[in-house]
Amino acid sequence: MNLHRIFVEPWQSHASHYWPVFAMAFFVTVACGLIGNYLVLRRISLVGDAISHSVLPGIAIAFILTGSRSGTPMFIGALVAGVAATLLIEVLHSRSRLKQDAAIGITFSTLFAIGVILISIHGAHTDLDLDCVLFGKMDFLPGREPVFLGVPGVTVTMAVVAICVGLLIIIFYKELLVSSFDPSLAASMGINPRLVHYLLMAILSVVVVAAFISVGAILVIAMLILPAATACMLSDRLWLMMILSVLHAFISSLGGVHLAVALQVPTAPASVVVGAVCFVVVWIVSPRQGLISLWLRSHRADRAPEVRSAGNV
Amino acid sequence: MPDKNVHVPALEVHDLTVSYLRRPVLYGVDFAVPSGRLVGIVGPNGAGKSTLIKSIMGLVPSSGGWAKVFGQPVKEQITRVGYVPQRESVDWDFPVNVMDVVLMGCYGRIGLIRRTGRAEQAKARAALDKVGMLPYAGRQISNLSGGQQQRVFIARALAQESELYLMDEPFAGVDAATEAAIITLMKEMRDAGKTVIVVHHDLATAREYFDMLLLLNMRVVAFGETGEVFTGELLQQTYGGRLTVLSEIADKLAKEGS
Amino acid sequence: MTDFVPARYFTPLLAAFFFLMFAGDAAAARIGELVQTDPWQQMRRFFTFSDPGLRLGLIGALLFGATCGLLGSFIVVRKMALIGDAISHAVLPGVALGFLWSMDKDPLAILVGATIAGLTGSLVVELIQRTTKIKQDAALGIVLASFFAVGLCLIRMIQNNNGASKITGLKSYLFGDIAVLDRQDILTITAVVIITVLLVVLLYRPLLTIGFDREFAYSIGLPVKLLDGIFQLFLAFSIVVALQAVGVVLVSALLITPAAAAYLLVNRMHHMLWVASAIGMLSAVLGVFFSFLGSNLPTGPFMVLGASSVFLVAYLFAPRHGRVTRWLRHRSRRRDVSNENTLKSIYRILEQGAANGAGNVVQIDKLAGERRVSKAELLTDLRRLRRIGAVDLIAQGRDVMLTDAGLQRARRVVRNHRLWEVYLTNEAAYASNHVHDDAEKIEHFLSEEKVAEIEHQLDYPEVDPHGKPIPGRIGA
């Protein structure tokens, strides 16, 4: 039975290798989703996209130099590339008449192109190739050496990153909120908004690098934005948005694993598709901003013209 | 006011209502401007002054009421109406020069595909000359001062050769010389039979600049000849209790004037 | 004067393209099928155009390089760069569906599918922005990634269901491979390019007006929404035709980067269109060249790097806005100022000593004291002044003598300084002890016309507020 293959088999003991895949997908989407709330709030979502593309040359150089994909060198390489991209965007648009959008576009495409060329020149490699950049290698996790309770090292790293992101957000909740909402107010309270910005970018780079192995460089933007965007249609409160993004992360990673099995596609794009479906569903049924409620409201306004509040914007 | 066109107002607005994100910003605005007048629209920040002229132009959707120009809907009379947006609404780094911007004034008349010819060039030149910007015709627009930018915008409107002009804050952030030049030009336009409606933020000068005033604060507080509506009571109503000092000054001005 | 007339130049160009195209041998091998050869041989093959597959690739590159530059210019000035990026990612599911529909790499089916997907993407972005409080950046991110993910899933499913033979065709859509372009592709590209150029030529003025001032465009009755729709349609078209060679991931760079470089280089929109097309073509050809040298490398990244290098050059050396040019200009202005200050000091010393009949000669030690700089620094300045013929060093470098040219320049600076002081005191009601610092700056930048105007306005004053004489006009 097909349904049995899709929904039951992955979790049965003989195929328990889906657990690490699901765990990885969940940790990636949680870490991305939490930090993504601030990107959406600060209206710099596409800087997230830019950074996820820009870390590629850092990863490629570290990989080529050390020949391994493990840990520290890659983090350092990617962190350097990520911060360099942030600085480059800043320099390009503040020191010339170029606008920010073009500066972002030029920076990330150039760095990404360098990364792609490095990877292609270095030749196909099972650990780092162009497929990895596009699809991620989430599904190859079970074949890797387990380091902890049958869980491979990258998943442990991702879990640690996700927990750290969560802790940092809890500790600096007030500072992040104030500096995202009103940078000048933050400055008057002694919080340096530029410092917060660069810290956020650094955390973002770390998250993006940790996620790179499993989701690649391009799909990360979906993991960053979709949970926050879905959450902000359901709630106005930041802490509730955070909780809702974790929920969204859970649904999309669980659904992603099953969809991947059903369609025989990689898990990373499949979870993004599930996440997007969640977004669309919420967009339609959300009580305050949903399309249905919007339609109902304008319908009511049509029938009662003395209430001049037709949704015209 | 004896005027040959008094029966067909240059601009007639009836029960115009505008909401933004379901929150009304203008309620049932009613007024009619006879042609050949210079009219100021004044009111506090957030009174909906810019929204009013934008919705007259059809740039902001209205949720009720209508606006007519020379007795017909604005859409059908679009070439008879010239609109001057706020200076800050455009990107002044845009790669065009002064002449290019002024020529845009002619694009409405010549149609989508036709090129600008000698006639349009001449019109644009004349318009630039009127605002004293002819020597700057070849200048890249990013090298202009605020006042010069505003003059270019006015020149573009002149090149449109319309009969009714709607101008959004043309005096905001310009130098005194430009302000004087623009108001002189507006008076000339009025004397040539054009109707000019100006959103204005400075009460102190509103009285001497305009023939008629529209006092606006989400609704029409008063509309009429400047001398009749520029009274402390009406200004008080327009500006609410918040700007009492200003209305006292206005009161004083009114007393001295009469 | 301001007319944009590319048609007259484009006809011969197009004729050349067609000649190249049909001169090629249809049965010849494609670039990708070449056996590995050494770079020098490859380079020779490149520059002799002896490879018909390469010829096709080059024609394609030139064509879509030009359209990307044209449409990219509008994108850059309208600040739509990231919208272009989102649309270019959003076409991927359309490519896959077009492929599924025809079960082959049929360029027309893919063009239609991808265009529909691209337009749907931009519609969804607009719909999200209009109906929710999600802002543009997040809306773009959502559409970009979701469409892209759907596309990836579809491609993987196609790959699962088909043999490996078809996979190569689809894969080129991700990172770009110029070698897969065949004659049918080139015909499609040519058709798209011709109508894009026609569109830009015919609708240049309205598009320019909308780009500069949207509200004004509405107010003069231009069909803004219709024109926007047409523009988006053509944007989608040109993204799609560049797709195979550049790849979904990087095609937006070919739209943005050449146009951004052009934006830094020129000041008029129609010049920008020309320059951006030229840079687009150059980048595309550079991309073909490098990927040809090391065969088996994706083309797209090299095209992007080509465009980025051109951009870097423009960013550093653009005649007016370039970083290096600006720095050089700054430095030469600083030198001018320092030169004039030295001349001024010499003049002052001469002025004090005029009664002693010291001529035009001043001791360097004394000058160093007046200028408050070390002797070594002063000598560097003086050598520079000697090079431009303003001073002579005499008495074994102990004294300095003003030449006639130097004297004139010194008089002019001193006159500007004192005149400005008078102007500030008389016209701007500055206190006379507050005017020196301002005059110290302005003296170097007063033009002769301004000076004449001020002199006239002040009725030709003879002394400054401190009672010192103002040197007369040059030659007077």
Name the features.
heterotrimer; B: 258 residues; alpha/beta; Rossmann fold; six-stranded mixed β-sheet; four-stranded antiparallel β-sheet; 9 helices; 38% helix; C: 476 residues; mainly alpha; ABC transporter involved in vitamin B12 uptake, BtuC; Arc Repressor Mutant, subunit A; Diphtheria Toxin Repressor, domain 2; 3 domains; three-stranded antiparallel β-sheet; 3 strands; elongated; disordered N terminus
Describe the structure.
The complex is a heterotrimer of chains A (313), B (258) and C (476). Chain A is mainly alpha-helical. Chain A has helices at residues 2-8, 18-41, 45-66, 72-94, 100-122, 130-135, 153-171, 173-181, 183-188, 193-215, 220-232, 238-263, 267-285, 291-303, and strands at 146-148, 151-152. In chain A, helix 2 (18-41) crosses helix 12, helix 4 (72-94) crosses helix 10 and helix 7 runs antiparallel to helix 10 (193-215). The radius of gyration of chain A is 21 Å and the shape is globular. With 258 residues, chain B is an alpha/beta fold. Chain B has a single domain (11-257), classed as 3-Layer(aba) Sandwich (Rossmann fold). Chain B has a 6-stranded mixed β-sheet with strand order 6-7-8-3-9-10, sandwiched between helices. In chain B, strands 2-1-4-5 form a 4-stranded antiparallel β-sheet, with helices on one face. With 476 residues, chain C is mostly helical. Chain C has 3 domains: 7-318, ABC transporter involved in vitamin B12 uptake, BtuC; 325-402, Orthogonal Bundle (Arc Repressor Mutant, subunit A); 406-457, Diphtheria Toxin Repressor, domain 2. Residues 1-7 and 20-35 of chain C have low confidence and may be disordered. Chain C starts with 6 loop residues before the first helix and ends in a 19-residue tail after the last helix. Classes of the chains: A mainly alpha (313), B alpha/beta (258), C mainly alpha (476). The interface between A and C is large, with 59 and 57 residues.
